[in-house]
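no rush on this but wanted to send it before i forget. what follows is a protein written twice so to speak, once as letters and once as C-alpha cells for the fold. mainly i need to know what kind of three dimensional shape the backbone takes. thanks a lot i owe you, the record is right below.
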Amino acid sequence: MESEQQRVLVRDAPDRSRFEITVDGELAGFSEYRSRPGRLVLTHTEVDPAYQHRGLAGRLVRTALDTARRRELVVTPLCPYVAEFIRRNRDYLDLVDEVHRAQLAD
C-alpha cells in the first residue's frame, strides 16, 4: 500500500507528449497523448509493475481528463484504460468526441 509519506505528483510533460506520475520523485507511469487543435488524443497508459495496484493509473488519467476540461479540449480515448475509466466515471463522458462517446455510452 501507498504510505502516507510517499509524495505522488502528476504533471503534463508536453515535450514528451504525455502526462507523468511520480512517486517520491521516481517515474511510476505515464499516459501518452497526441495534441491536435482543440483535441487531446489519449493513446496509451502504463504504470511500472513496481507501482501497480495503488490507484496510480486512475489518478494519472483523472488529471489528464481534468486538464483537457480546463483547456476546453475534446478527448479521443484510443487507450483502452482511458476508455474504461470514462465508462466507470461518466462525469467525463461529455469531454469525449461524438463517435467515441456513442461507443462508451452503451
